[in-house]
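Suppose a classmate hands you a notebook page containing two proteins, each written out with its sequence and a corresponding row of structure tokens. How would you begin to make sense of it? This section walks through that situation. The first entry is reproduced here exactly as it would appear on such a page.
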Amino acid sequence: MPLVPHEDEEDTEGDGEEYTEGEGEIEEPELETAEERERFYQELVKARELERKKAIAEGKMDDPLVPKRLDEAITMVGTCMDMCPRFERYRRERENNLFEWEVIPGTRRVDHKRAVKMYERAAGDKTLPSDLRPPPVLKRTLDYLFHDLLPREGFSPTFNFIRDRSRSVRNDFTMQHETGSLAIECHERCARFHILALHFERGRAGFSLALEEQQLMNTLQSLKEFYEGQHGHYESPNELEMRIHHQLIHIRD
């Protein structure tokens, strides 16, 4: 097994290219003072409310004030084309809640090209289409985490960050009910990351074996459901491997 969670050489339909430096250029206004940054943030808050009303009116998301059966719920489609939604980038900069790899070196300012969406429990009606990344963007995010950040900074130093951000990737797939080939590929890569973590991080201070096994079980369970749902439509070359991992993780049940 490779040290870095890998992509299969065989291409799948809809796959994007591996993350490369300079991809996805992001242009943001130059905000020099704290007052300018706060004013701009408040504008984003207002724009967010307008987006919510428009999305509800256009049938792109459910109105939280209107009761609806679960089978009638609207499946939201993500529109965020960056590794981290714009509003979250500015919000976390404002809250001073950025990892070292998400800031411009020597400052506390967010690096818009390197910030990655953090995992937060599903906020229900607070989630907007602009908060969710489409599958190709989710794949590109994992490309950055696994093929750029991890080999550059090392497994242990980046473990907590990548663990959280890859969990957020999986959550975005779940929120959009995405179960196709890209969802499968990305979950397989996340599963390998958790397997490696159980090997490399075992015994390290602060590492929870039980919590890591739980994340691996969650990932493998999702994969099991994806494989069954895609039967006859798409067959992953890694299905047998992942099903074996699924059986092994439950061998003591």
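The notebook's second entry, a different protein, reads as follows.
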Amino acid sequence: MPLKSLNVFTIFSMLGFTFLVLFISGFLDFPAVSNSIIQPINQQPTSSGPESGPDPFTNLISAFRKWDSQVGCARFKENQIGFVSVQSNGSSSLQKVGGESELECRELKMKHVSVLVKGWTWIPDNLDNLYSCRCGLSCLWTKSSVLADKPDALLFETTTPPLQRHIGDPLRVYMDLEAGRKRTGVDDIFISYHAKDDVQATYAGALFHNGRNYHVSFSKNNDTLVYWSSSRCLPQRNRLAKQLLNLLPHHSFGKCLNNVGGLDMALSLYPECANDASVTPKWWDHLHCAMSHYKFVLAIENTATESYVTEKLFYALDAGAVPIYFGAPNVWDLVPPHSIIDGSKFNSLEELASYIKSLANDPVAYAEYHAWRRCGVLGNYGKTRAVSLDTLPCRLCEAVSRKGGRNAKAS
């Protein structure tokens, strides 16, 4: 009996050893780990194109329907949880917009604030208004010295505020939304695009492009992929744009690298973009409409500066195109999840161009860049809009109220 037990043990040992050898040798076909895991929808896709081969498309709505059937909002939301949570965990790129807590409301020293905008400024006239803000604060924002004959604050943008201020004088507010964001040294409140300054005003609001044609085309060009328009021909930006656009079919409408036969040619290509046939059009009248016919819009900032994300990117999002972006290193703190192609994440412009061409022929992958809007996954973008020019009047009036307006200490 002991001998028989030994034989059984020996047999099982030999079988186990044989199984191990076969496994190591690869004769047994186990599924690879990479094939058994569903790949997540990444912020920056890593695939070079559709696995089933190119599928050229022009109808954006049809692309949405394909995405709905193959991916859908539920899966998209699940795969963006990590990205959204990282954005939400106290991003320092955006100022907090408070609620109406008792503590915050007690900080206000005035119930009504008037702001008089001084000198020439590009701030649109339709920002002039009487606003009803939180905590019962009312805010008059105006360019009229008649309506605000005794303002609590003076807002300067292109001119320097008074060098001195005495008690009883209006507070001096200075705004600089350019990349350098230079304070004057004599301002009481400073407005810029950056969260570290007194009041933040991002470029994401609708008032940066007020009064333009908002016709958005459902039909996308499939032969000319990229829209580019620039009339400030900075050498570094021009060089980058030229290198990339040489690799991609594109239309350039501005003064820089123009390839459409001159300025204001967009209406020749897209007559439906005309606002008013009786009025001589300006290029900005049909900007969004023209952009909407392209799958991609090239957006290159003047400089790669933290939080300096300008209308170049937000115009493209509002027009229903996918921005190809070069600029702020923290751009993902300010935009919706999976909404842009970050050019800095590619090893070369050739690799980037190859990805764009593949994406243009993959309706499902392309539609996913619009999923944030269709599925309501905004990430920090809601906060970016909340601290834009659109909400500046109330937020500035709150800052003036906290300081006490004319009763603030002299400086």
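A careful reader of the second entry would note: The first strand starts at residue 112 and ends at 117.
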